Amino acid sequence: MIPATFDYIRPASLDEACHVLRDAGDSGDDVKVLAGGQSLLPLLRLRLAYPSALVDLGRLPGLRGVEDRGDHVFIGALTTHDEVLRSPVVREHVPLVAMATATVADPAVRHRGTFGGSLAHADPAGDLPAVALALDCVFIARSAEGEREIPAAEFFTDYLETALRPGEVLIGVRAPKLGADWGFHYEKFTRTAQAWAIVGVAAAVRSEGGDIAEARIGLTNMGPTPLRAQVAEEALRGLGVAHGNGGGPAPGSAPGSAPDGARDPVRDACGQAAEGASPPSDLHARPDYRAHLARVLTYRAVRAASA
Amino acid sequence: MPRITVTVDGITYEEEVEPRLLLVHLLRDRLGKTGTPVGCDTGNCGACTVMLDGKSVKSCSVLAAQADECDVVTIEGLGRAGELHPMQQAFHAEHALQCGYCTPGMIMAAIDLLRDTPDPSDEAIREGLEGNLCRCTGYSNIVRAVRRGAREMSGETPAPATGGEVRTS
Ligand SMILES: Cc1cc2nc3c(=O)[nH]c(=O)nc-3n(C[C@H](O)[C@H](O)[C@H](O)COP(=O)(O)OP(=O)(O)OC[C@H]3O[C@@H](n4cnc5c(N)ncnc54)[C@H](O)[C@@H]3O)c2cc1C
Ligand code: FES
Ligand code: FES
């Protein structure tokens, strides 16, 4: 379909963008920010959204690109998925971001869609929100009133809702560099190629002398917002990773058992990955199946991240 | 109304566009470039794929206003007069189309893939064409065609067609 009419504003600077957004908010207009348009334009075409104007950030200088800033990596909100994937800094220092981005959509969508747009859109089926949660990223928001930081744990507030206030633009994200003792993995379950996650698991694991010292697990599509699997994270702390070989038990063997027949405590801990989640029901999966997937995929992700 | 300057298949146009005009509609309805079809409302099918400043995009998910000062190449801009582009030729030779609706997008996506991966494996081809759906062929001949097109574009002599009988009139 052809979208309903709207005005198109292409500000020349971030300041101008912030002022346009503030003035629009003051006069009660429904103005939306346009980044890559890969989520917003389909919504307009399906006439699921009727903004009065779009403020196109696509060409603003300074919001695009990846910077190594010592203890963290700064990813500008307007950096496209494709640029994230091509960034040696991302691959070296925040590989979990690269792993998840590689699974997002297809090459043409990745040429337009942006890192910040994926986070601001806050689709619980999107792959990057769970990664931002697992890495404890910090979101930087700017408005006409100034700049503020929002921790990932406070950013995703509800289905497609974030802590961004009207008039605020996400300008980028600080992704902490985790040390060499951390391992990472993104495990995504989809029905076909080019599909959204039915469930996805982002795992960051710190190993110490063969034990899991700390595990951070972000869940994709297990509720109206991305989640941390806190119960499983706690249960994993201090467990030995040497047990089992990561291949899982032989088909038909009891849950929690390792290939040699002994119980695998890591698998038991990952069995609590769906605790506290409220997975959606749709044509791809029912909640109980999603909970099952979360347990299985968490085990795979934790195994891979601690290998 | 935004006034844009856009180059399409080598010709520069100045157009006044309604903000809601999609790039694909600019191409088809204003510039007559009907070689680029529309297959869906969701950005899933890839039929509308074109090159925007050298990278594949789905032209149904880009506003015409966003293409201001950009260079667009559509399927119509690939070949020269009376001469198909090697990838078009490869799709023909390998019988990689039936109804042909997906073909313009497939060919653009295939050429985009070769920018980074001039000699792609079958798996890389399938991943590179992930955003392009075909309801007819079952993809096997498309993968063959892209392999063949890649060989031809890298200057190798093409092997005889492997995809069954090919009739030329
Ligand atoms: C066919 C298809 C398949 C896809 N598959 C996947 C997938 O498997 N996994 C996945 O994670 N995603 C997927 N996506 C979505 C894709 O990742 C989008 O790029 C992303 O969701 C939105 O980014 P964008 O830059 O295009 O944002 P836009 O569409 O421009 O904006 C989306 C929303 O975020 C707001 N917004 C954007 N940027 C900012 C900002 N800087 N500050 C404040 N608000 C902002 C907009 O106002 C809008 O409400 C898919 C999309 C398509 C079309
Ligand atoms: S018409 Fe553009 S992706 Fe389907
Ligand atoms: S040939 Fe008919 S859709 Fe691909």
From TrEMBL, chain A:
It comes from the Bacteria. This is Carbon-monoxide dehydrogenase medium subunit. The gene is cutM. Residues 1-180 form the FAD-binding PCMH-type domain. PROSITE patterns: FAD_PCMH. Keywords: FAD, Flavoprotein, Oxidoreductase. Residues 251-260 have a biased composition (Low complexity). Residues 241-250 have a biased composition (Gly residues).
TrEMBL record, chain B:
Residues 150-169 are annotated as: Disordered. It holds the Pfam family Fer2_2. InterPro entries: 2Fe-2S-bd, 2Fe-2S-bd_dom_sf, 2Fe-2S_ferredoxin-like_sf, 2Fe-2S_ferredoxin-type, 2Fe2S_fd_BS, Beta-grasp_dom_sf, Diverse_Oxidoreductases. One of its GO terms (molecular function) is 2 iron, 2 sulfur cluster binding. Residues 2-78 form the 2Fe-2S ferredoxin-type domain. It comes from the Bacteria. Keywords: 2Fe-2S, Iron, Iron-sulfur, Metal-binding, Oxidoreductase. This is Carbon-monoxide dehydrogenase small subunit. It comes from Planobispora longispora. The gene is coxS_2.
